[in-house]
Specification:
Layout lengths: L3 E12 L2 E12 L3 E5 L6 H8 L7 E6 L2 E3 L4 H7 L1 E4 L11 H7 L9 H6 L2 H20 L15 H13 L5 E5 L7 H17 L3 E5 L3 H7 L2 E6 L2 E6 L1 H5 L2 H12 L1
Parallel strand pairs: 3-8, 3-9, 6-7, 7-8
Antiparallel strand pairs: 1-2, 1-4, 4-5, 9-10
Helix pairs in contact: 3-6, 6-7
The structure holds adenosine-5'-triphosphate.
């Protein structure tokens, strides 16, 4: 088993001639928290969409768990252990917290719809196992008290936590988080950072996250990759990246203006 859980090799992606990602290569070590940073339009979300199979890349390859891919599809990515949350959360507001978390398993069900509808034994056993897993996630994320609350009635910070739970229930080995702290107040950010660190440490999940708050990035990540116009302009520890003149010019300088 290689040290790197993920290798991005020379990946390019264009939209009608606009290069969103340009010959990008970097590695994510197993067990680390890797932050992707860069100005708006740098290609960060596009990269997450490439990694979980939503966008088809034009060139290069992805190596995940030592397997080489020239193409990834969303179902295949989910089944191989790549989980994902989105920038604008896509929860079901009129469903309970528990049911929202259970929707994270829809791609992993073995029993067929007809077996579920008829309540056949395999479907019943599967449903029970999934409920137990959901219960474990609720406890881990300290959401037991909100188990039956409709998601639309929760605070924004708690909704983001439910979204994390929905991604976690499938037991991903690699979790992609698209701005998990966006729009949060300082307290909510701190709380979410704690949960991301707990997921990484206690569940052993490798995390790749996009984040704009430099304080959060520097405190939480083991590794930072900096993008600008679809290219990599920095790659190293938070301290190395902070001291890199190209990064300061491309991003940190701009952010500090
Ligand atoms: N579906 C799409 N169709 C056309 N162009 C797109 C699409 N998605 C992204 N782009 C373009 O690709 C480039 C990279 O965008 P992307 O959203 O990946 O950047 P980002 O770093 O995530 O930015 P932000 O921080 O604003 O979310 C931009 O020029 C964007 O306009």
């Amino acid at each position: 088993m290689s040290q790197a859980i993920l290798q991005v090799r020379d990946i390019s992606l264009s939209f009608k001639g606009v290069k969103a990602i340009n010959a990008l290569s970097f590695e994510v070590a197993r067990g680390e928290i890797c932050a992707l940073i860069g100005p708006n339009g740098a290609g960060k979300s596009s990269l997450l969409n490439v990694l979980n199979g939503v966008y088809r890349f034009d060139a290069g390859e992805i190596v995940f768990e030592d397997q080489h891919f020239q193409r990834i599809d969303p179902l295949g990515a989910a089944r191989r252990g790549i989980g994902r949350t989105f920038q604008n959360n896509a929860l079901f507001k009129k469903m309970s917290v528990l049911d929202n978390i259970l929707t994270g398993l829809s791609r992993h069900m073995r029993s067929r719809f007809i077996e579920q509808a008829l309540g056949l034994p395999r479907a019943r056993r599967e449903a029970e196992a999934f409920r137990l897993r959901a219960q474990g996630i609720l406890e881990f994320l300290e959401l037991q008290a909100q188990r039956d609350v409709l998601v639309g009635n929760l605070s924004y910070g708690l909704q983001k936590r439910v979204e994390l739970g929905r991604a976690l229930i499938a037991g991903p080995s690699l979790l992609l988080l698209d701005e998990p702290m966006a729009g949060m107040n300082a307290e909510e950010k701190q709380e979410m950072a704690r949960f991301v660190a707990d997921v990484n440490r206690d569940l052993g999940t490798t995390v790749v996250l996009i984040e704009h708050d430099m304080g959060v990035v520097m405190g939480l990540s083991d590794h930072v990759v900096v993008l600008d116009y679809g290219r990599k302009v920095g790659d190293g520890t938070p301290a190395e990246v902070q001291a890199n003149p190209d990064v300061i010019a491309a991003y940190l300088g701009v952010a500090n203006e």
